[in-house]
């Protein structure tokens, strides 16, 4: 038993020596235990920060998705704002002046197009145009190389023909709810030469044949031969006048 005990003792002694030669630290057990606790606390702290970081990453991903939706909405709204901004730039005004101007310019363009049809029959020399960005009128003189002239530069007879073309164009201008059925012209024929007077009368007769009522107030004797129904005002004594209807 003694021999066995000595053998075990020697074996344990060799194991102790080997263990002491292989030890990884010079610290004592208590110091290692304390260091372990500190490391465990650090691990816990890092784990907590890791969880917080993962939560932030997840929130960021969700916010990114929401931001994409918001950016798409912003893009759509930007397109809408741009459309309204363009409309506002074109027709926007507190008193509606811009839109009214556009509507009047458009209506005047239509009127001018009708008037040019009649003016081409009355005088092939001129073409009516609307002055750009305004409600004024100007004429293109085809005999002068398409020179643009103001309406104030026209002679009396030319002004009458242009005015007559506009009046005839107005008579042609109609819509679903309104139609100009009557046209009355007061004077102006006296400034026309015989050829131009015949052209003007031809235009009025063509309008009359289309079913419109045409009334002419004039003292030009040459016109009486071409007007079938006349209302004559005859002077009498003492400042009195007499009205009679003549049908030819």
Could you walk me through the main structural features you see in this protein, from its secondary elements to its overall organization?
The protein is an alpha+beta fold and 248 residues long. Helices cover 58% and strands 15% of the residues. It is built from five helices and seven strands. It has helices at 2-22, 29-91, 97-122, 156-172, 194-209; strands spanning 126-130, 137-141, 147-150, 182-186, 213-217, 229-235, 241-247. The strands form three sheets. Strands 1-2-3 form a three-stranded antiparallel beta sheet. It has a two-stranded parallel sheet with strand order 4-5. A two-stranded antiparallel sheet has the order 6-7. Helix 5 (194-209) links the parallel strand 4 (182-186) and strand 5. The model has no long low-confidence stretch (mean pLDDT 85).
List the helices and strands and how they pair.
Elements: H1 2-22, H2 29-91, H3 97-122, E1 126-130, E2 137-141, E3 147-150, H4 156-172, E4 182-186, H5 194-209, E5 213-217, E6 229-235, E7 241-247
Parallel strand pairs: 4-5
Antiparallel strand pairs: 1-2, 2-3, 6-7
Annotation keywords:
248 residues, alpha+beta, three-stranded antiparallel β-sheet, two-stranded parallel sheet, 5 helices, 7 strands
């Amino acid at each position: 038993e003694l021999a066995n005990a000595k053998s075990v003792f020697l074996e344990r002694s060799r194991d102790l020596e080997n263990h002491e030669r292989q030890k990884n630290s010079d610290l004592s057990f208590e110091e290692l235990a304390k260091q372990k606790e500190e490391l465990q606390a650090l691990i816990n702290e890092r784990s907590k920060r890791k969880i917080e970081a993962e939560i932030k990453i997840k929130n960021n991903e969700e916010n990114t998705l929401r931001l994409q939706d918001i950016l798409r909405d912003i893009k759509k709204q930007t397109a809408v704002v741009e459309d309204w901004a363009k409309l506002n730039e074109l027709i926007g005004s507190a008193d509606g002046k811009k839109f009214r101007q556009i509507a009047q310019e458009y209506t005047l363009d239509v009127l001018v197009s009708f008037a040019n049809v009649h003016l081409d029959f009355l005088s092939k020399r001129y073409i009516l145009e609307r002055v750009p960005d305004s409600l004024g009128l100007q004429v293109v003189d085809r005999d002068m190389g398409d020179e643009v002239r103001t309406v104030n530069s026209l002679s009396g007879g030319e002004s009458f023909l242009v005015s007559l073309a506009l009046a005839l164009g107005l008579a042609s201008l109609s819509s679903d709810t309104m139609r100009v059925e009557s046209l009355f012209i007061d004077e102006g024929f006296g400034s026309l030469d015989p050829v131009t007077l015949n052209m003007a009368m031809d235009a009025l007769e063509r309008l009359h044949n289309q079913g419109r009522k045409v009334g002419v107030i004039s003292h030009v004797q040459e016109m009486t031969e071409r007007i079938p129904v006349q209302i004559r005002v005859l002077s009498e004594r003492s400042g009195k006048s007499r009205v009679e209807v003549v049908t030819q």
